[in-house]
Amino acid sequence: MAKTLSDIKQALDLHLGQRLTLKANGGRRKTVERSGVLTETYPSVFIVELDQEENSLERVSYSYADVLTETVELKFF
């Protein structure tokens, strides 16, 4: 995606309100795939509202460092 945390935040600001699919490291060699809508960006984290049919959680948050280190991969529709 981008090379710095501020670049990642600016790129995500442009995608506010859009649907996305995210792949996240779930620990112990697990990969979690979820889909939802990017709802908010803050100075150090962003929030994704998840689809209720697929997930038990309503919202998840990740840091921009997770995207930078490729712990979380985002794909916008």
Automatic annotation (TrEMBL):
Pfam family, one: VEG
Gene3D superfamilies noted in UniProt: 2.30.30.100
Domain of life: Bacteria
BP-aspect Gene Ontology terms: regulation of DNA-templated transcription
NCBIfam families reported in the protein's UniProt record: BflmStimVeg (NF046033)
Protein name, entry field: ABC transporter permease
Natural source organism: Priestia veravalensis
